[in-house]
Design brief:
Order of helices and strands: EEEEEEEE
Strand order of the largest sheet: 1-2-3-4
Structural class: mainly beta
Strand content: 35-45%
Number of strands: 8
Helix content: under 10%
Radius of gyration: 13 Å
Shape: globular
Distance between the termini: 31 Å
Length: about 110
């Protein structure tokens, strides 16, 4: 069945479960705030922002999409953008880096 995991304002989209099943990453669109990548425990507790930081800027204008966890659960690869979609890798500390690759639906290769 369907179970609501949070009671926070805004909408969550593009969820992805970690390889060990203990965490969920999702895009979070909060009214009046920047779009963000978040992670939480599988039961909805421990919600934490993986807000973009770094030299490229602190604001994503598009929601992170096509989230995929690395096999070891330490990184999340996803797309950002509408017309020219950039593939980005985000760490669980909030650090992130562009791959310099543009495309859709990234995933890890084992």
């Amino acid at each position: 069945g369907i179970e609501q995991l949070t009671d926070d304002n805004g909408s969550f989209s593009n969820p992805a479960r970690s390889p060990d099943g203990t965490q969920i990453a999702a895009a979070w669109d909060r009214e009046g705030h920047d779009l963000a990548l978040v992670r939480m425990n599988a039961d909805g507790s421990g919600l934490g922002l993986l807000k973009p930081t770094g030299s490229v800027g602190d604001d994503w204008q598009e929601s992170p999409g096509s989230l995929a966890w690395s096999p070891d659960g330490g990184l999340i690869i996803h797309e950002i953008g509408a017309d020219k979609t950039e593939i980005v890798i985000s760490g669980l500390s909030g650090a992130w880096a562009s791959t310099g690759v543009y495309g859709r639906s990234p995933d890890w290769i084992d």
